[in-house]
Amino acid sequence: MTVDHDDGTIEVRDLTKRYRRTTAVNGLSFRVTAGRVTGFLGPNGAGKSTTMRMILGLDHPTSGQALVNGRPFAESTAPLRTVGALLDARAAHGGRTAYHHLLALAESNRIPRRRVTEVLDLVGLADVAGRRVKGFSLGMSQRLGIAAAMLGDPRILIFDEPVNGLDPEGIRWIRGFLRAMAAEGRTVFVSSHLMSEMAETADHLLVIGQGRLVADGSVADVIRSAGQNHVRVRSPQAAELAPLLDRAGGVVQTLADGALAVQELDCARIGEIAAEAGLCLHELSPQRASLEAAFMALTDGAVEYRAASLAGSPS
Ligand code: ADP
């Protein structure tokens, strides 16, 4: 039943968290595996932080289970060596220097002093190691939080919205860092409310809306599942063409500029139908769904979507 080897897997089973008025997390089940970046995507308030806190044993589920390496994380005997978490970048004690902040953490977890220097190098803070944390920019605080997470050289990383509020250089750095950690075989579980951000960083996506799983698959799978791809057709005889496409199984919508948006038929088939009827085309172009549109479509009606259609698809 429970896997008890340290394969770096995070698993939640039918996880639910209710607060007095809100169901923050609602029957969530998924697995996060090692060696890839798994993006945990959903609008603000979707339940991402609550889920991560339950995985880390900081919140108790109302029902269901959250397991790290097959066990509740609260039972871990070496927590910092198992999971590196970044939940709130501003959590560091402001009066300490970056070095002393990390040293205190290392000493209380029996991690050797030289590891402090290593993680400062790893996140590019070696030059400011002697500066007090309260003068740090958000980007520097974020790097310090990541350095703290990396102290125990954990196999599993859990980062909540790590790019929030960062400048483009900081965002690029974090992206590269997450990808490098996954390439080393670590489990990288990172949340965001921005689809565009996750599309750049993640190999695999878990999308949630209103506490429920709405998609579990590769970025391409998730976009496809949102069903937004269509063919744009312009014709001076659109009024004659539309019913023919409809009869052939197309789902046809007339757009504000008079063009037709056609789903369920590809360009070739639409061109053939027009040619057979002797109708003239001015435009026949495939339209790819935008990531944001797919995400909105998925999370808007979160309750109506079934996660099962995509759950567990390999990537
Ligand atoms: P996200 O991280 O996706 O933005 P959260 O997990 O922070 O979402 O919040 C999910 C929902 O649970 C929200 O409606 C939020 O207001 C509610 N919530 C979170 N923490 C608490 C709490 N301690 N007490 C009451 N409601 C909470």
Number of helices: 11
> In whole angstroms, how far apart are the ends?
24 Å
**Structural class assignment:** alpha/beta
Q: What's the architecture of the largest domain, going by CATH?
A: 3-Layer(aba) Sandwich
The number of strands is 13
Overview of the structural elements:
The chain has eleven helices and 13 strands. The radius of gyration is 24 Å and the shape is elongated. It is an alpha/beta fold and 315 residues long. The strands form three sheets. It has a six-stranded mixed beta sheet with strand order 5-6-7-3-8-9, sandwiched between helices. A four-stranded antiparallel beta sheet has the order 11-12-10-13, covered by helices on one side. A three-stranded antiparallel beta sheet has the order 2-1-4, with helices on one face. The C terminus is likely disordered. Strand 1 and strand 2 form a beta hairpin. The protein folds into two domains: 207 residues, P-loop containing nucleotide triphosphate hydrolases (Rossmann fold, 3-Layer(aba) Sandwich); 68 residues, Alpha-Beta Plaits, CATH 3.30.70. Helices cover 34% and strands 24% of the residues. The structure holds adenosine-5'-diphosphate.
Throw out a few tags for this protein:
24% strand; four-stranded antiparallel sheet; 315 residues; single chain; binds adenosine-5'-diphosphate; 2 domains; Alpha-Beta Plaits; Rossmann fold; 11 helices; disordered C terminus; alpha/beta; elongated
